[in-house]
Design a protein that fits this description.
Blueprint lengths: L1 H81 L2 H7 L3 H17 L3 E8 L4 E7 L5 E3 L12 H6 L8 E2 L3 E2 L1 E2 L2 E2 L5 E10 L5 E10 L1 H10 L6 E6 L4 E3 L19 H4 L1 H7 L4 E5 L3 E9 L13 E9 H21 L1 H30 L9 H18 L3 E8 L2 H8 L1 H18 L5 E4 L4 E7 L3 H23 L5 E7 L7 H23 L1
Antiparallel strand pairs: 1-2, 1-9, 2-3, 4-8, 5-8, 6-7, 8-9, 10-11, 10-14, 12-13, 13-14, 15-17, 15-18, 16-17
Helix pairs in contact: 1-5, 1-8, 1-9, 2-3, 8-9, 11-12, 12-13
Length: about 525
């Protein structure tokens, strides 16, 4: 009995030891698994938050760039007809020029349906030509007895102070006719530019009333998330685009109760006054905002531009919905132990790789033009500034060439934007074939390019540009059967006062002279 008891005790001890060690191992495994899941959970939460933040900022940038691009088209159309010799002749009293200009303004309005009015004023503020788009989309030339005087309107008074070739952008508000807000509401931005005689005398102005509803429609179309809300807020905190139509444009009606984003979301508004771009977390959700200019891009000589805030709101329900999958994954990881843990680790790694890839892509996109693969304006401006300083220290030469693609708008209008894109990409192709590795090329606007030639004078730069122009002509013939054409101007670093703006401006002026010469030869 003693022996049997001892055997039983040993067996019981072994069983207990196995049980105890199993419990310890199980506890350690469960503890380790909980630690891994906990760390993974925290990191995944941060990754989702960061990914959502990047996505929202990207969406803000896309909408903002689309709005500025839209307004840049308006600026281009305005300067095209207002700064023409025909406009000056019409204001000088030429009926033939007036008829031709009227036809040109009709064509502009037909090609781009976003203009409520396109007008020509004389120096006294009297309308000389007014083409209006009715609400049914039909264009109407105002008869002489319906032309109005707008000398006392704020936008006309503002443009009187502009220098030649400058562009004025009015506040984004509602159209006013005969002292009353037009019904139904017609959101409007007025673009104006003065017209001067050859002697520099102010003789009139060109004005385009842009249908601002199209801007608001762009915001709606690019807000790709169903539950997100998009706002457009002016600098005074009023809604230009809000949740409810009745809250919008209240500043146009001082006799009504004033509703402002600034009062509805005071914490968010205070943060918006401290930074041009940012994110604000509230109990209701996340607000992302960006301050930008409601005016054409920097290629135009814009005298002013109303600032506005583009705001995206992500509701808390959407944020929690984004975490729902993660919470389910944590439960499954715990239930399935190691296999699901490995799967979650793999998912996390995949998420981080995608995050890094997105960051690198955004960094690349920030300095490159998407269509051509060349650098963008900001990149070449930075590069040119550094090389101006470097060339001065080394007493080396530096040349700059400004390129403008001819007939791009006509190509877009006649053959479509795909054909126009081929013209743009063709320029990039011949540039890359012709310049050295040490040179730097960029697309700085819709049809404008800039090349910086290091250790090169203007004569050699012109020779390179002749080769580029010839190659561009041949490329056009081979691809489309038509000759492609460009205008260019080359200059070089002259003196100690030269800077980025002056050398680009000088090259731009030379390019324009080349374009005028080309037109003269064509005639």
């Amino acid at each position: 009995m003693g022996i049997m008891g001892s055997i039983d005790n040993v067996a019981a001890g072994v069983s207990y030891a196995k049980y105890k060690r199993g419990v310890i191992y199980s506890g350690l495994l469960v503890l380790f698994l909980l630690m891994v899941i906990g760390i993974t959970y925290v990191v995944s939460m941060q990754s989702i938050s960061h990914e959502r933040e990047n996505m929202q900022y990207t969406e803000l940038a896309i909408i903002e760039n689309s709005l500025v691009s839209e307004l840049s088209i308006v600026g281009a159309d305005l300067t095209y007809y207002a700064h023409s010799n025909i406009a000056a002749s019409a204001l000088a009293g030429s009926e033939r020029a007036k008829d031709y200009l009227t036809s040109l303004m009709f064509q502009i309005s037909l090609l781009y349906k976003h203009y409520d009015q396109i007008r020509l004023f004389d120096a006294k503020g009297d309308e000389v030509i007014r083409i209006a788009q009715n609400r049914d989309g039909m264009l109407q030339l105002a008869p002489a007895d319906q032309l109005q005087n707008k000398y006392d309107r704020y936008y006309f008074q503002d443009l009187l102070r502009l220098t030649p070739k400058q562009t004025y952008t009015s506040a984004f508000d509602l159209n006013v006719e005969h002292g009353e807000v037009e019904q139904p509401f017609k959101p409007t931005i007025r673009f104006a530019t003065p017209i001067h005689s050859a002697q520099g005398e102010f003789i009139g102005a060109g004005v385009i009333n842009y249908n601002g509803q199209d801007l608001l429609d762009i915001i709606d179309s690019l807000n790709v998330h169903d539950n997100d809300k998009a706002y457009l807020i002016n600098r005074d905190g009023y809604y230009l685009k809000g949740d409810r139509p009745e809250d919008e444009w209240r500043f146009m009606f001082p006799d009504k109760a004033q509703v402002r984003f600034a009062e509805d979301y005071p914490i968010v508004w205070r943060r918006m006054q401290q930074a041009d771009r940012g994110k604000v977390e509230t109990d209701r959700g996340e607000f992302y905002f960006s301050l930008f200019q409601l005016s054409p891009n920097s290629t135009f000589k814009t005298a002013n531009g109303e600032s506005a805030y583009l705001v995206m709101f992500v509701p808390d329900t959407t944020i929690r919905e984004g975490y729902k999958t993660l919470n389910s994954g944590v439960v499954l990881a715990f239930l399935l132990l190691v296999p699901m843990f490995i799967f979650l680790a793999y998912k996390l790694a995949s998420s981080q790789v995608e995050q890094d890839r997105l960051f690198k892509q955004l960094h690349f996109d920030a300095r490159h033009d998407a269509l051509t693969g060349l650098y963008n304006r900001q990149a070449i401006v930075d590069y040119l500034g550094k090389n101006i300083s470097s060339c001065r220290r080394r007493k080396a030469k530096l040349a700059v060439s400004f390129i403008d693609v001819n007939l791009l708008k006509k190509t877009n209008d006649q053959y479509g934007h795909d054909a126009g894109d081929e013209l743009i990409k063709g320029v990039a192709t011949v540039i890359n074939m012709s310049i050295r590795e040490c040179d730097f090329a960029a697309r700085i606007g819709g049809d404008e390019f800039l090349i910086v030639f290091v250790d090169c004078d203007v004569a050699n730069a012109n020779r390179v540009m002749e080769r580029i122009q010839a190659a561009y002509t041949v490329l056009g013939l081979s691809q489309t059967g038509h000759q492609w054409s460009m205008s260019y101007g080359c200059t070089q670093l002259h003196n100690k006062t030269d800077d980025v703006d002056s050398i680009i401006e000088r090259a731009d002026k030379l390019m324009y002279e080349h374009k005028v010469a080309q037109r003269s030869e064509a005639l």
